[in-house]
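Reading is simple: each integer encodes one residue's backbone shape. An example follows:

___
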Amino acid sequence: MGEAEAGSPHFPRGGVKLHPLLLPPFGGLQMAQSFSHSPVLVDTVVSVLASVPDGVLFDATVGGGGHAAALLAARPGLRLVGVDRDASALEAARRRLEPFGDRVHLVHAPFSSIAEVAPDQLAAALFDLGVSSPQLDLAERGFSYRADAPIDMRMDTSTGTTAAQLVNELDQHELAALFRDSGESRFAARIARAVVAARPLTTTGELADVVADAIPAAARRRGHPARRVFQALRIAVNDELGELGRALPVAIERLAVGGRCIVISYHSGEDRLVKGLFASAASGGCTCPPGLPCVCGAVARHTLAFRGSRQATADEVASNPRADAARLRAIERTSL
């Protein structure tokens, strides 16, 4: 195994490193070359992390390296451990972060690998969740309902269950529950019934048409009626909420005093999970009824960096529409 897989607590030396398993899949070089992604809320991220101590920044979703590049440029005392499941994104990050030399170490892994790949103490951690613009724009990845392609949706195309398998193998009740959990509550059962009746489905275009036909025209929300269904499948295929639930508590616990953890989420399920984990950490895990003095002995070692969430400005949304759904929350370690 490579250095990161072996779980070394020390930051590796010797230039921008890629995990030895980081071999782009068929067509991966072409995808990496087209992986140009504008990070959301980048100025806010740099500002929120301006006060953290020198040390290691764990970027849980390094993507094309946009946030990482801005942070490494603003803070010469930070070194990066960046992970991503998408080999094409990591290759793009390698090129973008090459000027920072041995301050950068990149690993092909899900962010739930934090316990193995990151040191025991972090100056900062950053989670930019969801799917990136290049992943949506590359039709062959199967994330988008706007182009016809195989129904894939895997962040790591070398392993795991595809969205096509879920669409064609789950029973009607399981599909309905999956769609309902992602916010398609009113028509979840109707869509699931239509999907089952139309099987087998092999392309995103076929699936998008089935979903659109299942929803009455008068009830369609702003945007494509298949948006929530595709989102639900992507989240399930990549176990996104499970990954977040496993990784975020580790990141919070490993913060050095003065260190901060930022999460940028894009839908309500992610944001609820982040808000709950941050609230628990800020209370020290207190189990006492709200509004009453704490008698359970909880000791708070973290505090919210600010109340609520921060959002993109109108100017940023105009230049990067993906930023419109972004919600940024942050927490700080105050004591050991």
Summary: The chain has two domains: 17-134+240-333, 156-237. The domain at 17-134+240-333 is CATH 3.40.50.150 (Rossmann fold). The longest strand covers residues 255-265. The radius of gyration is 21 Å.
